[in-house]
From TrEMBL:
Annotated compartments: Membrane
Source domain of life: Eukaryota
Residue span of region Disordered: 1-23
Signal peptide positions (record): none
Keywords: Membrane, Transmembrane, Transmembrane helix
Organism: Aphanomyces astaci
Protein name as catalogued: Cationic amino acid transporter C-terminal domain-containing protein
GO CC aspect terms: membrane
InterPro entries: AA/rel_permease1
Coiled coil residues, start to end: none
Phylogenetic lineage: Eukaryota, Sar, Stramenopiles, Oomycota, Saprolegniomycetes
Amino acid sequence: MLQLRKKGAGKMDVNATDGERGNVQAAGGGPMTSLWSRVSWKKPLSLTYAEESSENPHLERTLGCFDLLMIGIGGTVGSGVFATAGLIAKSYAGPAAVLSWILAGFGCILSGASFMELSGLIPSAGSTYAYAYHSLGEMPAMIAGCLLTLEYGVASAGSARSWSDKFESWLHQMGVEGPVWMKPKDSSIDLYAGLLMSLCVGIVLCGMSAGKQLINIVTVTKISVVLFIIVVGLTKFDSSNMDPFIAPEHINAVDQVVFGWPGVMLGASASFYGYIGYDEVCCLAAEAKNPTRDIPRAVFGTVVGAAFLSTLATLSLVGMQKYTEIDVAESYGTALRHVGYHWAAPIVEIGEVFTMPVGILIGFLAQPRVQ
């Protein structure tokens, strides 16, 4: 790392960086000053540019704009809609769940604009951690890194549990009963989710080249499934299911005010989970062929694409079935059967089971890059 170029006691070379000057000055200012200097030290951009220009034997620049876009969309589109659309519509906002997704998407576009600007200025792996390290200091960067670790871990675990429910439901519809010990009733143990996460970790260990091809294929399939839901569902759109659009608010069993405008805002906070993924693109800047150009484009395409597809998929859901009758665990499959499309339901259910894991894979792919 950086070495202080001192000339005598308490003096330093005029060519030293700002960070080095702060460390030298802190050396004569007492232990508290030294501690504050260390936790508030900001990484110079010149150091990042030097690191990025040098060859990293562990990270090869193999990701183009399309690859980054597929990683972003793969981590957002579908994973949030499949896991939370039914819950938001039935328990929080009713038909106005459409507004919840729009509001959350607008907030993510504003946040994504910041990521686009910062990713162009700081072409470094680490996303929020790297940006905080340059602009706020080492301590805020450490906090950001811990929060990113929590975000990717919790989001991946939540997606794995949701996938497990759908996988078990799909097996049941196929007439197959899985081992009870894999997911015991009245227990928090879920070995299906654990095995899926272990499989994703194994793929990550195989390297980016193997993971990239798999992510691209599965993400294209996932987008096709969501578009299929939108097109098929809107052909059976019933406007009576949208009345009232904003359901009367009331207090649920856990003392939350749901439905009405409070429910719309509560749904927006829940649907924000469905947009997690655009920051994962920024974590892979060190492996992008042209990070200053491709990262901002991929972030913009991810946020806009996720907002567009998620909103239309939710509109399709609440248009097919009354929000009070939506099945939270199998929302789209149940809704398609409700409108008589029994042939379409298995297509969607199989698509959900086989494409949801890519979001977990991408979360684990980005996690080691937070450094």
